[in-house]
Amino acid sequence: MAGSVQASMAERMARVVPGGVNSNVRLEVADRFVARGLGARIWDVDGNDYVDYVLGQGPAFLGHAHPRILARVQAEIAHGMTFGAQSEVELLAAEALIDALGWAEMVRIGMTSTETVQAAFRLARTRTGRPLFLRFRGQYHGWLDNVLISPAEPTPAPASRGQLPEALDQSITIEWNDVASLRGTLDRHGDRIAAVITEPMMLNAGAILPEAGFLETIRAECSARGILLILDETITGFRLGPRGAVGRFGVVPDLAIYGKAVAGGFPASVLAGSAELMSEFASGTNHSGTFNANVLACAAIVAAMEVMADGEVHATVEATGSDLMDQIRSLLSERDLPVQVRGLPAAFHLSYDDDLPVRNYADLLRGDAARYGRLVHAARDHGLWLTGRGIWYVSAAHDRTTTADTLERLARAIAVAETGAVRA
Ligand SMILES: Cc1ncc(COP(=O)(O)O)c(C=O)c1O
């Protein structure tokens, strides 16, 4: 990389932007500058191409620079972005979302899921008059003080310097897929708990599926105790199927948060729920934002809902992703590597660990993260764009050609990572 265009850009960037990145999640790739993306590939400013399984941390579910999304956004923003009043495309986006989701009656459209999670908490506290929420270890709900935890510790601890530790007293954290712990915690603290918040499938850590009956048990316990169920569908929404995890797992929440795939790669986040609950925002419960439901976000949502309407997109992702998972498994077992490929075709996870089942975050910690880190590092030098934490996102633009390229590049990256061989 030394002497490359991106190396000199990284040097300049580090002088004007702390760490050379505008989101701490990107510190591990501070040396890379992307010039463009198209479909399932991105190109860096030095002209290297990568098959992309990061997809901007999930949003580019339809592929980069999808022509229908771009055309709609370009047409709408030509007339302005924010007006301090409503726009027609905002109305169309809300109607399209409700139509697509099937279970929700009202939505609020914002910019990031970090904010939308907080709006959901505020609504849950309004409704129940209770202060606490229950959450699960290893799940991520944004970077604010009351939700950012260091999952390496069994007891929640701040994950950042400067974080107010007391803010974590608003929540109780337990391991996922543990019904006994769930019931015990609810027995002890249920009358002070406003909401249980969960990713319906653990996609920030390990692509861990809910065990049979787990989500249903959360749902039933919440209903019985007057606690709200908040599904954080920021990643799962519109990715695991046209109706997200609600459609896939059949559990209907009181509130759900959508982000990433909801707007075809553009910035938007959505809170959805019943009219009765969501109407609290019109009677004393505040949710605000200068850029909420701006024209760009809403045009992208409308276009994304149209592109995903006929089920083709999800069928393609399922077929491509499941073939890719199979082929990666074969490649790894040919090389006798102890890697588990776990999850669903639209989002799966690789980790160097034993064959024991991974049910929760504690199980995931058995894996050799450093060994996987070496693979990711080598993969980036061989044209594969992967997340450091193990998740692989598949888009509707991935196909047989990207799978073939991926296998060939992965084989070379493994050779380097496992033997310390020099760059091919
Ligand atoms: C499940 C979940 N919730 C909330 C967030 C926060 O979303 P944002 O980065 O849009 O603030 C994320 C981000 O990755 C997430 O995965």
What does this entry look like structurally?
This protein has 424 residues and is of the alpha/beta class. It has 2 domains: 33-65 and 311-419, Aspartate Aminotransferase, domain 1; 67-308, Type I PLP-dependent aspartate aminotransferase-like (Major domain) (Aspartate Aminotransferase, domain 2), CATH 3.40.640. Helices cover 38% and strands 15% of the residues. The protein contains 13 helices and 14 strands. The strands form 3 sheets. It has a 7-stranded mixed sheet with strand order 4-10-9-8-7-5-6, with helices on both faces. A 4-stranded mixed sheet has the order 1-2-3-13. 44% of the residues are buried. The structure holds pyridoxal-5'-phosphate (PLP). Pyridoxal-5'-phosphate binds at residues 57, 112-114, 117, 140-142, 199, 204, 232, 234-235, 259, 269. Pyridoxal-5'-phosphate is lined by residues 57, 112-114, 117, 140-142, 199, 204, 232, 234-235, 259, 269.
Helix content: 25-40%
Q: Poorly predicted ranges (pLDDT <50, ≥5 residues)?
A: none
This entry's quaternary arrangement is single chain
Morphology:
globular
Query: What is the mean predicted local confidence, pLDDT?
Result: 95
Question: What value does the Rg take, in angstroms?
Answer: 21 Å
Strand order of the largest sheet: 4-10-9-8-7-5-6
- Small-molecule binders: pyridoxal-5'-phosphate
Describe the sheet with the most strands.
Answer: 7 strands, mixed
Could you say what the CATH topology of the largest domain is called? Aspartate Aminotransferase, domain 2
The H-level CATH homologous superfamily of the largest domain, spelled out, is Type I PLP-dependent aspartate aminotransferase-like (Major domain)
Q: Give the number of DSSP strands.
A: 14
